[in-house]
Amino acid sequence: MYEIPTDVICQKIGDSAIIVDLQNEIYFELNATGRFIFEQLAAGKTEAEILNQVVGKFGIDRLIAQSDMNALIVDLLNHELIISHNDEKATINPSNTHPQL
User: Fold this and answer.
1) Residue 72: C-alpha distances to residues 24, 65, 100, 101 (Å)
2) What separation in angstroms does the CA of 30 have from each of 27, 41, 46, 95, 96?
3) What is the pTM of this model?
4) What is the reported pLDDT for 87?
């Protein structure tokens, strides 16, 4: 699970968003997919849940979505725009994220 620090805000601009760290004056611009991922992280969703939602909502190939989402999460962690409360650390195995039928 992840937490958004209190000094980090997300400003929506159309389908995109800008994330701003008011204390460190760092900002990220996110496209619609990045905004969705950030919002889901803020809502307490797991990476596996978010990956499944991204693939379904945006029609992105699972491996590409996983790679892009992992890169975004690592960037957000490195810039302290999110805080990790687990050991998941952006390492989803896509073969383990398919729902059981």
Assistant:
1) 19, 10, 27, 30
2) 10, 14, 19, 27, 27
3) 0.82
4) 56
